[in-house]
Amino acid sequence: MTGTLRVIDSGVTEGRLNIALGQALIEQHRAGKIPDTLRFLRFPPTALIGRHQALSQEVDLEYCRKNRVATARRMTGGGAIYLDPGQLGWELLVRRSRLGGKDLTDAARAICEAAAAGLRQLGVDARFRPRNDIEVNGRKLGGTGGFFDGDTLFFQGTVLVDLDPKLMVSALKVPRAKLEKRELDSAEQRVVTLKELLAERCPEMDKIQSALVEGFKTGLGVAVETAELDRDTRTLAGQLYDEEIGGDEFVNEIEHPGDEAGVLAGEHTGPGGTVRTYLRLQGPGQSRIASALITGDFFVTPPRVIYDLEGALRGLPLAQLSGTLACFFQKANIEVLSVQKEDFLKSLRAAVDAGGAA
């Protein structure tokens, strides 16, 4: 990668507006109105769910209401996270053409290795762990994820600087399967902060940001220049916030049906994440899919492809499930950072089997 990377810092910003700012940067970058950009961002106490997750399944809403923890939905996939002013977020927007034709997996590796190299300058042994984590001695110091939108790669990450893990565990419903996969007893064991690692040597936020900038500068081979967030992007972010991202309807738009009558639920957890499927069947012998809802902590690009998949399943005879799914993935030009088409099929089959259908 070559060129210059604009570096901006939007400070602590309300959670949903932070997401709107990220989406505004995507649209401005895709339109060629802004250069490649690295944004640093921070949140007030916020439970932040992934693009394809069901809010109440991932977040303890009662705890959040009582303790003034806000909720927001990311534009990227992945799992739910808890953020507050003690954590540092970063977002990278670069031209796909500048990445030398890398697919999403290769781009994620290059970016995460650059970020980890920057953090090592602070005196911690940060390493990239596929699919999308930055770890120190097997404990998660930060997560990442992203997608392509046209020629724009939007990739974001976090650095846990000074976090009380009990707050995270209280605000989120951490799936037991995630802990068992790593042979952990609690979510607190899974994460680590710079404060825990460095104690009184833990640097201030500006020093952490500088280390990350150096990591990206060297690892991605770019020059950097510091700038302010431009007025046009702020204006667009305000519009996106007012029209969609700031509203409860957007944050609540995916909701699992629970034990609702007539709904079949299936789940498959693989190395890349969990896919949950909810089906309604219809027709003679319940042999046709009336509707489908697919949720989970997976990454796919473009993110909207999940809605296209749900549409492709509507009205489909169960006997055509495998062939239709294979054809869909072949034609949809999908890139994945985590799950594969087989994971979706296994989740769908689990839902079908739950109803005893053929």
Mean pLDDT: 90
Gyration radius, in Å: 20 Å
Strand/helix succession: EHEEHHEEEHEEEEHHHHHEHHEEEEHHEH
Structural class assignment: alpha+beta
Shape: globular
Could you please say which CATH topology of the largest domain applies here?
BirA Bifunctional Protein, domain 2
Task: Give the N-terminus to C-terminus distance in angstroms.
Answer: 51 Å
Q: Could you tell me the strand content as a percent range?
A: 25-35%
Would you identify the CATH H-level superfamily of the largest domain? Bira Bifunctional Protein, Domain 2
User: What would CATH call the class of the largest domain?
Assistant: Alpha Beta
What is the β-strand count?
16
Uncertain segments are: 176-185
Number of domains: 2
Helix percent reads 25-40%
Helical run tally: 14
What's the architecture of the largest domain, going by CATH? Answer: 2-Layer Sandwich
Neighbour order of strands in the largest sheet:
7-8-9-10-6-2-1-11
Biggest sheet: strands, sense, closure?
8 strands, mixed
Question: Brief description of this entry?
Answer:
37% of the residues lie in helices and 27% in strands. The chain is an alpha+beta fold and 358 residues long. α4 (104-120) crosses α9.
Report on the architecture of this protein.
Helix 1 (15-30) crosses helix 10 (231-245). The longest helix has 17 residues, at 104-120. It is globular and about 65 Å long. The chain has helices spanning 15-30, 55-58, 61-66, 104-120, 165-171, 176-181, 187-190, 194-198, 205-220, 231-245, 248-251, 305-313, 321-331, 341-354, and strands at residues 4-12, 37-42, 46-49, 70-73, 81-83, 87-95, 126-129, 133-136, 139-149, 152-160, 223-226, 264-270, 273-282, 288-296, 300-301, 335-336. The chain is 37% helix and 27% strand. It contains 14 helices and 16 strands. Residues 176-185 have low confidence and may be disordered. The strands form four sheets. It has an eight-stranded mixed β-sheet, with helices on both faces. A three-stranded mixed β-sheet has the order 4-3-5, with helices on both faces. The chain has a three-stranded antiparallel β-sheet with strand order 12-13-14. By secondary structure, it is an alpha+beta fold. It folds into two domains: 4-251, 2-Layer Sandwich (BirA Bifunctional Protein, domain 2); 264-354, CO dehydrogenase flavoprotein, C-terminal domain (Enolase-like, domain 1).
